[in-house]
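Appendix C. Worked example: Metal-sensitive transcriptional repressor
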Amino acid sequence: MDEPEGSCPVCHEGEGDGERRSHHDERTIRELVNRMNRIEGQVRGIRGMIERHVYCDDVLNQIASAQAALHGVAKLLLEKHMKSCVKEQLRSGDDEVVDEVLKTIFRLIK
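Step 2, the predicted output written as structure tokens:
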């Protein structure tokens, strides 16, 4: 798919549908999907621990591990977003992207 001239190669408006989309390289997609698959497995494991009445502290430790894994995915996505989309939008004069990113970061650090 060819990118419109001047648009960000990672995040840009969708093909006439008004939705913003990300277009990460295949390596990044694989890494994100692999991480999310592991997290999904962790969450299923936590549910199983609860169903089996596993000691609360052990369950809480697994929850903390899953949260840390999700945080890692968020950091990777934020890094890719900052180095591509945000950078490109700032170059094109769109300073509103700073407010958007700040809102996102504030949500992540709650």
